[in-house]
Amino acid sequence: MNGREADTTSHDPAVADSGLAIVAGAGPVGRATAVALAEAGRTVVLINRSLDAMRELPDGIRPELADPTDAAQVKTAIDRLAAELGPPTVLVNTVGMYTMGDAIETTPDALKRSLDVNLGAALWLSQAVATHMKHAGTGAIVHIASRPALEPAAGVAAYSISKAALVHLTKVLDVELRPHGIRINAVAPQLIDTAQNRAAIPAGVMAHAVAPEAIAEAILFLVSDGSAPISGAIVPVYGG
């Protein structure tokens, strides 16, 4: 992936900006989003707790080691980045974990871990960028929710509960931060087309999965000027 040429012709020019965009999470959606933002002209920093997951990033995407579930680490990293590169005007949080298990079988550890990753990271990241965005009077934040957060399903209790909490956090942040010029939205995938999912899920089911790049395009719209009237929305990206 090194040396990939930036191509800004396929993206909305309203997204192009010299402002700092922070993407948290180096999974398939995080990487695809970081690439899309960089190609749109943003200065992009990818935050992840493991450097291994950030190897071979395309030119123009800077890796930053920090654990998004650790509030102190997140604040320190984002404050330092803001001082060095300018205030962040975009945050895309793709941090998440998926766990199986019925509600009556869920353990305290499983619930706590799901809440720490799927909810806690979103809150700590939002807190860390909000101070800078308030000062700038502008900003756009996008979180990754999920369909089970909106339409409960059996067998994924801790996951769906933690993602439902993230949906509510998105709406609370919208109420609190929109008066400061900061927009907060979320996208809600159902099944993402990744190598891990293709190895574990039947091909017939995967035929309806959504590519990470398609989710990144939806995110790109939500941080663009073209989506200026949209805040507090949970946008479904369920696929076919």
Please outline what is shown here.
The protein is of the alpha/beta class and 240 residues long. It has 8 helices and 7 strands, in the order βαββαβαβααβαααβ.
CATH architecture: 3-Layer(aba) Sandwich
Question: Into which percentage range does the β-strand content fall?
Answer: 15-25%
Contiguous helical run count: 8
Specify the structural class: alpha/beta
CATH topology: Rossmann fold
Described by strand count, sense and barrel closure, the largest sheet is: 7 strands, parallel
How many individual β-strands? 7
**CATH top level assignment:** Alpha Beta
| Shape call | globular
CATH superfamily: NAD(P)-binding Rossmann-like Domain
Please tell me how large the radius of gyration is.
Answer: 17 Å
Distance from N terminus to C terminus (CA atoms, Å) equals 29 Å
Please describe the topology of this protein.
Blueprint: E1 20-24, H1 28-39, E2 43-48, E3 61-65, H2 71-85, E4 88-93, H3 108-136, E5 139-144, H4 147-150, H5 157-177, E6 182-189, H6 195-200, H7 203-206, H8 212-222, E7 234-237
Parallel strand pairs: 1-2, 1-4, 2-3, 4-5, 5-6, 6-7
Task: From the structure above, extract its key features.
Rossmann fold, disordered N terminus, 240 residues, seven-stranded parallel β-sheet, 8 helices
Question: Can you walk through the features of this model?
Answer:
With 240 residues, the chain is an alpha/beta fold. The chain has helices spanning 28-39, 71-85, 108-136, 147-150, 157-177, 195-200, 203-206, 212-222, and strands spanning 20-24, 43-48, 61-65, 88-93, 139-144, 182-189, 234-237. Helix 3 runs parallel beside helix 5. The protein is globular, with a radius of gyration of 17 Å.
